Amino acid sequence: MSDCLFCKIVSGDIPSSKVYEDENVFAFNDISPMAKNHWLFIHKEHTKNANEMANENPEHLLDIFKAISVVTSDHGVVENGYRVITNCGPDAGQTVFHTHFHVLSGEKLAGFGAK
Ligand code: 5GP
Ligand code: ZN
């Protein structure tokens, strides 16, 4: 999609701080981090949100979660843990309409049942 911010990050037209790339998946630091580590994982093929991805390209979910497993392992955060969030649609506050998974780690995370 030519007018999509994250497609432009994949193509390199907009710079990003890359943390991972393979043939399918691209991951980079969120520009406005909500935790010590705040990475965004996206598929190189555009879909608008996780619901559309699950219906149209469910194999992309596997690509994403395998990449998350690799990066969290490489950064040594698997044992202490990490959180995966995807905002799907307006009530969730989705602002960028290229499916992305926030991965937060590196500190004790508040909210979502954490004590
Ligand atoms: P959403 O609110 O759609 O779940 O998440 C969009 C995320 O993209 C936000 O956390 C925001 O900080 C991040 N973001 C927006 N624009 C850019 C950008 O140009 N570069 C990077 N690295 N992150 C961005
Ligand atoms: Zn896109």
Number of helices: 3
Average predicted confidence as pLDDT: 96
CATH class: Alpha Beta
List how many beta strands DSSP finds: 5
CATH architecture: 2-Layer Sandwich
The ordered string of helix (H) and strand (E) elements is: HEEEHHEE
Low-confidence stretches: none
Q: What distinguishing features does this structure have?
A:
five-stranded antiparallel β-sheet, binds zinc ion, 115 residues, globular, 3 helices, binds guanosine-5'-monophosphate, HIT family, subunit A, alpha+beta
Task: Write up what this structure looks like.
The chain has a single domain (5-105), classed as HIT family, subunit A (2-Layer Sandwich). Helices cover 26% and strands 23% of the residues. It is built from three helices and five strands, in the order αβββααββ. It has helices spanning 5-11, 50-56, 59-74; strands at 18-21, 25-29, 37-43, 82-85, 100-105. A five-stranded antiparallel sheet has the order 1-2-3-5-4, with helices on one face. A hairpin with a 7-residue loop joins strand 2 and strand 3. It binds guanosine-5'-monophosphate and zinc ion (ZN). Zinc ion (ZN) binds at residues 1, 4, 6-7, 46, 98.
